[in-house]
Write a structure and sequence with these properties.
This protein is an alpha+beta fold. It has two domains: 128 residues, Beta Barrel (OB fold (Dihydrolipoamide Acetyltransferase, E2P)), CATH 2.40.50; 217 residues, Chloramphenicol Acetyltransferase (2-Layer Sandwich). Helices cover 29% and strands 25% of the residues. Strands 14, 17, 20, 21, 22, 23 and 24 form a seven-stranded mixed sheet that branches. The chain has a five-stranded antiparallel sheet with strand order 7-2-4-5-9, with no helix packed on it. Helix 3 runs parallel beside helix 4 and helix 8 crosses helix 10. The protein binds oxidized coenzyme A. The site of oxidized coenzyme A has 19 residues, from helix 8, strand 18 and strand 21.
């Protein structure tokens, strides 16, 4: 009897995803736990493992298709499934699938040594399809290249990002399209570029001049959707102030090496997390959300801080949990790990959920102030710009001080301007005197 395999729950508030890759083929015998599908949701790509062992008789979805949780993805032969299951765990079918967020989501790096050909590669080869990660497929779409036409340099047969770029360059030069920058899409931080070069695409003649188009990625579409909803739905006000971090700068020079020896980095952002948590304890409204239906404020008695991270895939906000229970050193290590995971798209979905307040530090890039958009259901977000040496009038004379610009966006439905000004002033003063917090550790 046919056994249907349905898309399982993907996480809180996630009702659908886009099929990035089908990893098995009709006729293939699948083991319990073997990945069947790669699915792309808001901000991650995850593998859906099989809960049964058996033979695939039908595949009802295709790459690029949007599917709802509960939709039938494929059908197994039940008789064969049962036969294979005898050798597997008897409870296999009842075990809920555990989603593994892909470790090699970008697929950019070809393995240095030839690796054994995996089942998905075999399956794809069997049905004459090309094996490429979602990111590589997206890159191909962006460059207007048919991924199936790209010759691979990878010993496993997988098409890499480099293969696509090389192919696009040769195709564009032969088609008379402008030459393509071979480093498009890499992280500007990693490559040391001053900025990313837009990829060259087929040009069409628009009303006012030549134009080119690209499909928005899932992350970009979701970001656009959420930003618009938050911008329209929340009456924002942004309050600006500056903190004198001259003392912290000196402390950083002194204590930095000890942090680095422990595998951490004493950065402004790590200190900010610590200071902001203390501010949130004193100003609980900023660590709350609004239950509009019930007309209530929901105060959170935990401190999960979202850290906006700039990645080549777009803005991601991993959440550092229970920041109040961690030392600056622990915060610094965990923050670096979360940012690295965000940049390699290894974040699990729940690592981006449940935040109570967000910090967005653009100071590593520059700027003197900005107006961040609140990350609902949170009610405030602290934006940080670049610290600069400024003349400050102190004790009757000007002195050079390191001044850090702070921009707090807050939800004016529940927070008043004076409260916001007090919150930011308290934060600025704590940043000016971080010793108290550091000595507590
Ligand atoms: N002022 C001056 N210098 C700053 C600074 C600031 N506000 N913030 C960071 N820097 C410096 C750091 O000290 C570091 O210098 P050194 O290498 O000399 O020590 C350098 O800039 C790079 O820091 P960093 O950004 O790698 O480290 P971080 O811990 O401070 O920040 C993270 C981590 C994840 C917040 C950051 O990397 C990042 O992604 N920021 C962008 C956030 C973003 O995109 N926000 C926009 C959201 S709205 O669209």
């Amino acid at each position: 009897m046919p056994t249907e395999f349905k898309l399982p729950e993907l996480g809180e508030n996630i009702t659908s995803g886009t099929i990035a890759r089908v990893l098995v083929a009709v006729g293939e015998t699948v083991a319990e736990g073997q990945p069947l599908i790669e699915i792309e949701t808001d901000k991650a790509v995850a593998e859906i493992p099989s809960t049964v062992a058996g033979t695939v008789t039908e595949i009802r979805v295709s790459e690029g298709q949007k599917v709802q949780v509960g939709a039938v993805l494929m059908v197994f032969d039940a008789a064969e499934a049962a036969a294979v299951r005898k050798t597997a765990s008897p409870t296999a079918a009842k075990t809920p699938p555990k989603l593994a967020v892909l470790e090699r989501a970008d697929g950019a790096a070809a393995p240095k040594t030839p690796s054994p050909v995996r089942a998905p590669e075999r399956a794809a080869a069997a049905r004459g399809a090309v094996v490429a990660s979602p990111t590589v497929r997206r890159l191909a779409r962006e460059l207007g290249v048919d991924v199936n036409a790209v010759p691979t340099s990878d010993p496993t047969g997988r098409v890499t990002a480099e293969d696509v770029r090389r192919f696009a360059e040769s195709a564009s030069s032969s088609m008379g399209i402008l030459p393509t920058e071979s480093n498009h899409g890499r992280d500007a931080r990693a490559t040391g570029q001053a900025g990313t070069t837009p990829p060259k695409r087929a040009l069409t003649e628009g009303k006012w001049g030549p134009e080119s188009r690209e499909a928005m990625t899932t992350i970009r579409s979701k970001t656009a959707e959420r930003m618009s909803a938050n911008w329209v739905g929340i009456p924002h006000v942004t309050h600006h102030d500056k903190a004198d971090i001259t003392g912290f700068d000196a402390l950083r020079k002194k204590c930095g090496p000890a942090f680095e020896a422990a595998g951490a980095k004493l950065t402004v952002t790590a200190l900010l997390v610590k200071v902001v948590v203390e501010a949130l304890k004193r100003f609980p409204k900023f660590n709350a959300s609004i239950d509009v239906e019930r007309g209530e404020l929901v105060f959170k008695h935990y401190y999960h801080i979202g850290i906006a991270a700039d990645t080549e895939h777009g803005l991601l906000v991993p959440v550092l949990r229970d920041a109040d229970k961690k030392t600056i050193r622990q915060i610094s290590v965990e923050m670096a790990q979360l940012a690295a995971k965000a940049r390699s798209r290894k974040l699990a979905l729940d690592e981006m959920q449940g935040g109570t307040f967000t910090i967005s530090n653009l100071g590593g890039i520059g700027g003197t102030g900005f107006t961040p958009i609140i990350n609902a259901p949170e009610v405030a977000l602290l934006g940080v710009s670049r610290a600069a040496i400024e003349p400050v009038f102190l004790n009757g004379q000007f002195a050079p001080r390191a001044m850090l610009p702070l921009s707090l966006s807050y939800d004016h439905r529940i927070i008043d301007g004076a409260e916001a000004a007090r919150f930011v002033r308290w934060t600025a003063e704590a940043l000016e005197q971080p010793w108290g917090l550091l000595l507590e550790e």
